[in-house]
Amino acid sequence: MTSSAKRKEDSHLANGGVKQSTWSKALSSSAVWEEKDEFLDVVYWLRQIIAVILGVIWGIAPLKGFLGIAIFCIINAGVLYVYFSSFQQIDEEEYGGTWELTKEGFMTSFALFLVVWIIFYTALHFD
To answer: How confident is the model at residue 103 (pLDDT cuts 50, 70, 90)?
Structure first.
């Protein structure tokens, strides 16, 4: 069996429907997540997207210091909490509790945020 035929076969469910992609499930409310790692990957990459967007905004608006870091942490944690508790309505205990989901991928997104923030701030506000 060729790899493309295998992929087509894998994408069909037992009831004849087509398997939903990870990102289409991520953007639809109250999606069903068969695999735990799939949802955790969505949380991780959503954090990275938030980090880049906020890093660019913080760099363009000459935001500095602890205030910028604190606001990033609040927005990052808040958006993800609303996403998994209200939008996706998942059972947090199935993933190790609210704290586990809240800290999933946080440090890498924080590092990415700092890099983007520093690059944009330096490029736009220093001679």
So the answer is: confident
List Cβ neighbours of 105 (8 Å cut-off, separation of 6 or more): 43, 44, 45, 47, 48
Phi-psi region of 42 (alpha: psi -120 to 50; beta: other; left: phi over 0): alpha
Q: How much is the average pLDDT of 109-121?
A: 96
Buried b (16+ CB within 10 A) or exposed e, 19-54: eeebeebbeeeebebeeeeebbebbbebbeebbbeb
Report residue 45 CA to chain centroid gap: 4
| 17 — pLDDT class (breaks 50, 70, 90) | low
Specify whether the CB–CB gap between 85 and 92 falls below 8 A.
yes
Quick one: tokens of 7?
A: 């992929």
In this prediction, residues 46-53 reach a mean pLDDT of 96
